[in-house]
């Protein structure tokens, strides 16, 4: 059974005490589940979408048909109509978002001030329209439009917690270097849930940095043989401190890799292309301990296969960092004497 929300609330409506789902504005939600009545405390949530950049594409457009919030023992909350000032839409049955327009700390709010029951939610499910390139698609650097497909036409992104009587904003963070792959056979792209996370903005951290010396890109062999020094430069972020450097792995999918993966390989939590003009930025990260690694020789890092890249490269480009909730960290490159530049 599903509880269907036909429209989201504006900030004005929320201030007036109108509930988007589940009844009146008295802090309770009343509806029927399996023949019984449920009355729980509620919270107000908003939901945004953000992305980490990906090379060689001008646009990555997804068309969202509905968003489903799932909570064990209760009806699904299904949002089928969308109002978003960030996207310039009002009461639309679908919305299209170019993920590359909202990179780093930028996000587009697609659900605003929605009242739902508090507690643990098991899943957010995005139903995606991807029948052909007129729906979800990518635009290449050659201005070619390619289909963008999603397995089973939906993304299941995992759980989140809604605080009672609270107001929270959650962000769906797409890391396309991990989540998206090009498939040469059908000549299309595919997005999988890997590398896509749901984070509470109030507890999230961020990491960004600039490149203060671009010789980092092409000083050591084989990077000094690159025809374009600005290509193949990637930062990898691993969760934890005191990691065994030899175990640090490039991006791979343990379920689909066609190459052998060492048993002790440590998969990066996230990775991002580095440019001399914009540096890099991870906009939404869980707080905790991390290890940041740079490589100038990552052009051949396949998002699905374990490639056995030497990391870090150069070998001194590694540093341990700690992120606290709600705070940002700046680490400019190159890393010098074990410290951010």
Description:
This protein folds into two domains: 2-202, no CATH class; 207-330. 3% of the residues lie in helices and 45% in strands. The chain contains two helices and 26 strands. The protein is globular, with a radius of gyration of 21 Å. The protein starts with a strand and ends in an 11-residue tail after the last strand.
Q: What is the total number of structural domains?
A: 2
Tell me the helix content. under 10%
Task: Return the average pLDDT rounded to an integer.
Answer: 88
Principal-axes geometry comes out as globular
Rg on CA atoms, Å: 21 Å
- Secondary structure tally, helices: 2
The structural class is: mainly beta
Strand content: 35-45%
Query: Low-confidence spans: pLDDT under 50, at least 5 residues?
Result: 6-20, 22-37
Largest sheet: 10 strands, mixed
The strand count comes to 26
Note the run of SSEs as H and E: EHEEEEEEEEEEEEEEEHEEEEEEEEEE
Distance between the termini: 55 Å
In short:
The chain is mainly beta and 341 residues long.
Describe the secondary-structure layout.
Elements: E1 2-5, H1 11-15, E2 28-33, E3 36-52, E4 57-70, E5 76-79, E6 82-84, E7 89-92, E8 95-98, E9 108-117, E10 119-121, E11 123-129, E12 137-140, E13 145-149, E14 154-156, E15 160-162, E16 167-175, H2 176-179, E17 180-183, E18 188-191, E19 196-200, E20 204-209, E21 234-239, E22 270-273, E23 280-286, E24 288-295, E25 318-323, E26 328-330
Parallel strand pairs: 1-5, 3-16, 13-18, 20-26
Antiparallel strand pairs: 2-3, 3-9, 4-5, 4-8, 4-11, 4-12, 6-7, 10-15, 11-14, 12-13, 16-19, 17-18, 20-23, 21-22, 21-24, 24-25
């Amino acid at each position: 059974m599903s509880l269907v929300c036909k429209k989201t609330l504006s900030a004005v409506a929320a201030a007036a005490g109108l509930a988007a789902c589940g009844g009146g504005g008295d802090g309770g939600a009343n509806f029927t589940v399996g023949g019984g009545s449920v009355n729980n405390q509620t919270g107000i949530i908003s939901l945004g979408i953000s992305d980490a950049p990906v090379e060689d594409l001008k646009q990555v457009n997804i068309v969202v048909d509905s968003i489903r919030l799932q909570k064990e023992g209760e009806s699904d909350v299904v949002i089928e109509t969308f109002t978003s000032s960030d996207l310039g839409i009002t009461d639309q049955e679908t919305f299209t978002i170019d993920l590359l327009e909202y990179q780093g700390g930028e996000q587009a709010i697609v659900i605003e001030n929605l009242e739902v029951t508090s507690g643990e939610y098991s899943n957010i499910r995005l139903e995606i329209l991807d029948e052909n390139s007129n729906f979800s698609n990518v635009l290449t650097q050659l201005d070619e439009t390619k289909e963008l497909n999603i397995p089973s036409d939906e993304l299941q992104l995992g759980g989140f917690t809604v605080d009672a009587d609270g107001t929270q904003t959650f962000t769906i963070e797409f890391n396309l270097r991990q989540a998206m792959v090009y498939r040469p056979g059908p000549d299309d792209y595919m997005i999988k849930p890997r590398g896509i996370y749901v984070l509470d903005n109030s507890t999230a951290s961020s990491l960004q940095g600039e490149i203060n010396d671009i010789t980092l890109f092409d000083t050591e062999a084989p990077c000094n043989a690159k025809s374009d020094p600005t290509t193949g430069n990637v930062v990898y972020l691993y969760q934890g401190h005191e990691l065994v450097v030899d175990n640090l792995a490039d991006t791979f999918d343990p379920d689909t890799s066609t190459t052998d993966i060492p048993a002790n390989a440590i998969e990066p939590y996230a990775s991002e292309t580095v440019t001399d003009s914009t540096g890099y930025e991870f906009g939404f990260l869980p707080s905790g301990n991390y290890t940041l690694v740079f490589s100038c020789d990552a052009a051949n890092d396949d998002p699905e296969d374990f490639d056995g890249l030497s990391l870090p490269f150069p070998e001194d480009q590694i540093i341990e960092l700690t992120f606290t909730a709600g705070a940002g960290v700046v680490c400019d490159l190159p890393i010098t004497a074990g410290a951010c530049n």
